[in-house]
Amino acid sequence: MGNESFSKGLPSTLNAPAFVDSWRWKALIAGIVFAAIAVVLAFLGQAQDPRHLGWIHFWRGWLDGYVACFGFCFGGMALLMVQHLSGGKWGLIVRRPLEAMCATWPLIVLMFLPVAWIGATRGKLYIWAQYSNWTDALRKGLIDNDQAHAIRWKQPMLNAHNYWWVSLVCLGILSLYCVLLNKWSLQRDADPEPNVAYWRTKFENLSGFGVVLFAALLFVLAIYWVMSIDPTWYSTIYGFQYLVGEPFMVLPLAILTLIGLSKAEPIRSTFRVIEQHDLGKLCFALVMLNIYFAFGAFIIIWSGNSPEEIPWYLDRIRGGWGVIATLDVIFHWLIPFTLLLSRDLKRIKGKLSVTCCVMIFAGFWDLFWLIEPSYRDAARDLRLTWGIFEYAAVPAALFCFWLVYYLWQLKRRPLIPTNDPHLAEILEHDYVHA
Amino acid sequence: MPLPEGLYCLMAEFDRPGDLVRAAQAARKAGYRRMDCYSPYPLEEAAEAIGFHRDEVSLVTLIGGLLGLVAMFGLETWIAVWAFPVNIAGRPYFSWPAFVIPAYEWTILWAGMSACFGMIALCGLPKPYHPVFNAPNFRNGATSDKFFLCLESTDPKFDVAESRSFLEAQSPLSVVEVEY
């Protein structure tokens, strides 16, 4: 087990400190407050908006928050599999937070039910579900020719029945991965022998295929849940943006968790500046990859000169949306990029925490920009009604409730996996590598 | 322009780089300014000794880069807005975010080219004729193992007899007069 003379020794307690419970209470109270605000906003919006979109906005906000929480859960799972494949000390220190994230899958499945019921079965979120009888809707002038055409030809995929079962099958497969990753990790801890090769191979075999499968299923779900809101448009890079967007929020949350936990053992002595710096660098890589995909998608579509694709961006630039889009670039790229360039910043806990908060906030902001202009009543026309603030209240509420579940999972097991050869490395003093 | 005639410089030859640097420092201290050092490999101390502190390559690079930026951004704007406006689904003609990448590429390209050619030009290259090659000992040693200090005749302080005795005091291998 490494060079003992450099080792600090394993902390006496490996369980999460007691203050995690107070975090849970705070998250629960915040969640209830946000939920109450969301309901009030829905009533206000219903009364104020001549189109009576109050409750519709509530459910759109739910979809926004749901996609974010899905990302925290299964994006955490993806990052967990990546660290099993890549190995490394950074992976060991974030492993338990990531496992706790992916253990929240029952809540994610539960949160999905209203989306599917309200959105697809009752057709409140998806135009293809609302006007599945497209001939009738076209005659009444409720949809235009393009929409009718898209609904007609995409009906084999975009119908409520397929929406339900494809989503549930995908969620089921992903949840199975979450269960296995969590179960094996505890079994590995309980193993009296190191059995390094056995466990590593076992995790690698699951994760290697798992990351590919995750990407494929994520593409399908991103298309069904978000892209299909506007069935007239499609993009092949759409799934990739979610594939990067999820770790873009997951990794900052994992870092925030560790920084929060580092006030007490066992994380205080095991979360070293070296790994913190490494995680900061990985955040920086994600910031670059994210803008690469987002800007790449824009430049390809914009320069492609196709009148079928460019309106998607025009919907999100004109009528006030340009402000949201500009701020999206600032929150998503400019601020984290310029901050994370600094070496010192990545090594100072307080400053790195602020950057992580900005990144998570940017993730929510981006989802708002992706989702709301997909609806024809909001495209090229950003109206600051009460209803639009549902995009803040409902996702905040769902995120807080999700946090409660996540922190509960975090408390259920030791924060440091003990049966792993990397353990000896993170128990070395900082200066050994500095 | 008539070709210059007469004495170009007095050239002292040294065996070791240290001797050259010391001689150059002494020459500068004595008030000589129009002089040059020649060595088989770059000798930073020698450049410093004759008062060569900074060059203008970085400024040329900056100007070149900015010119590239303006040129490509202007070209794109001109094409998209005036020369060949294409209306695609009501897309704005002047969509500057889409112009960023080519403009950026030309910034780097022009900056790099300016750095390369600016450096060559500031070095006075290409130069098919240079009088120092009239000295046979220079031809033999300048690119292998000898170090030279030239006091140029255009220096106001230059005087053939006085400068020769100054150079001989620096214990060189030889001091020769070099004609244009």
Give the gist of this structure.
By secondary structure, chain A is mostly helical. Chain A contains 18 helices and no strands. Chain A has one domain (21-421).
Count of structural domains of chain A = 1
How is the largest sheet of chain B built, in terms of strand order? 2-3-1-4
Largest sheet of chain A: none
What's the mean pLDDT score of chain A? 93
Separation of the first and last Cα atoms of chain B: 15 Å
Shape category of chain A: globular
Which bin fits the share of residues in helices of chain A?
Answer: over 70%
Content of β-strand of chain A: under 5%
The assembly state of the depicted protein chains is heterodimer
Bin the strand percentage of chain B: 5-15%
Structural write-up:
The complex is a heterodimer of chains A (434) and B (180). Chain A has one domain (21-421). In chain A, 72% of the residues lie in helices and 0% in strands. Chain A has 18 helices and no strands. With 180 residues, chain B is of the alpha+beta class. Chain B folds into two domains: 7-54 and 131-179; 57-122, no CATH class. A four-stranded antiparallel β-sheet of chain B has the order 2-3-1-4.
Descriptive terms for the model:
heterodimer; A: 434 residues; mainly alpha; 18 helices; B: 180 residues; alpha+beta; 2 domains; 4-stranded antiparallel β-sheet; 6 helices; 47% helix
List the helices and strands and how they pair.
The complex is a heterodimer of chains A (434) and B (180).
Chain A: H1 19-48, H2 54-86, H3 89-102, H4 105-121, H5 127-130, H6 134-139, H7 145-153, H8 160-190, H9 196-225, H10 238-261, H11 267-270, H12 273-303, H13 310-315, H14 321-340, H15 343-347, H16 349-371, H17 390-411, H18 422-426
Helix pairs in contact in A: 1-2, 1-17, 2-3, 2-4, 2-8, 2-9, 2-10, 2-16, 2-17, 3-10, 3-17, 4-8, 8-9, 9-10, 10-12, 10-16, 12-14, 14-16
Chain B: E1 7-14, H1 17-29, E2 35-38, H2 44-49, H3 57-83, H4 100-122, H5 136-141, E3 147-152, H6 160-168, E4 174-179
Antiparallel strand pairs in B: 1-3, 1-4, 2-3
